[in-house]
Amino acid sequence: MKTNNINKKLEQFAAVNNVCLMILAAGALTAFLVYTRVILMPFVIAYFIYMLLNTAAAYMKEKWHVPTFLGLLATVLLFVCLSVLSIFFISASIESFIQSTDIYASKLNDTIDWFILTAQKMGIVLNSEVLMNYLNNIPVFNMVKTMGSNIVSIFTNAGLISLFVIFIFMSSTKEKTNFVSNIEKQISYYLIIKILVSLLTGFFTWLTLTLVGAELALMIAFITFALNFIPNIGPFIATMLPIPVLFLQYGFDWHIILAISLLITIHFIIGNILETKWLGKGMDLDPVIVIACLIFWALVWGVMGALLAVPLTSIAKMIFERYKPTRPLAAILAGRRLLG
Asked: What's the start-to-end Cα distance of the chain, in Å?
């Protein structure tokens, strides 16, 4: 009896010890991710790009018997062309938006006048001078400076990511384990489906906004494409994004109602029906856990962390499943078990 009691106490102590070690390890890992984000984040993006290109080359070899080298060369060239076009498109869109700042400021003035008159008719007195002073003090030049620095950072990160992709391809000649290959296949499949779904969402968003005559339709469509990678929250933000632009153009009329109705339908059909059908179970992550991990990665790596939250969490879950002490954590991420 004494021996059994001692063994039980030792098991309990070992469990508590493991939990404490995991908490310490999680804290140290979080600090490491924060302080190395400048290098580690471009490396992670580069590795995801490598997985996509490698998967595309393998598909070309299997379906069309294209040699591996030619398949990789074709996919790399296609990726470079798309990246360059995307960067120029982003730059042109931001430049167009900056040039139209005065026009939007004038429209905003007219909107505020209409809002004040409407409020006065309803018996609500507003201080027009305070609103107008606030409008005139909008830091346009700081916004322009911020946008310019963002463009420079895009080019800088693109160069660093390209170098990482080249080094990863050079070191990928070694034979991989089944575990690593399985991770790459699952993440590649998720990213390919997500890119396809985001492209469809962005295209139909552009088409909808063009039909109602909205300005900045291309820019909003591109932002929608990026936001679609953020689960749950991203599509909601993308749906609400055109409202200020349409309100400044037309006021509150049928343009806003029609555009938002169509956008909600688009996101529902593509996100809830097509994406669910193509992905199946997806990454086998609990929706509540996905939101929690989204917040965590956004705090650690900012917007890019939010975009990569699902694949990064999925990789962590697959690693946890491999080792016995961390399998309960994998079960928690999948929503199959709670702590304790």
From this structure: 26
CA 149 to chain centre: 20
- Long-range Cβ contact pairs of 64-72 (< 8 A, separation 24 or more): 72/169
- 156/162 Cα distance (integer angstroms): 10
Query: Whole-angstrom Cα distance, residue 70 to residue 83?
Result: 20
The pTM score is 0.82
Residues 6+ apart with CB under 8 A from 25: none
Whether 285 contacts 296, CB under 8 Å: no
Distance CA(155)–CA(87), nearest Å, equals 8
pLDDT, tens only, 188-235: 889 989 999 999 999 999 999 999 988 788 888 888 998 899 888 899
Backbone angles phi, psi at 182, to 5 degrees: -65, -40
CA angle 308, 301, 204 (to 5 degrees): 40
Q: What does the H/E/C string look like for 184-253?
A: HHHHHHHHHHHHHHHHHHHHHHHHHHHHCCCCCHHHHHHHHHHHCCCCCHHHHHHHHCHHHHHHHHHCCC
C-alpha neighbours within 13 Å on the C-beta side of residue 189 = 13
157-196 pLDDT, tens per residue?
777 888 888 888 887 766 677 888 888 888 988 998 999 9
Burial annotation 236-251 (CB, 10 A radius, 16+ → b, else e)? eebbebbeebbbbbee
Domain boundaries, the chain: 44-171
Name the 3-class secondary structure at 286: coil
CB distance 233 to 293 below 8 Å:
no
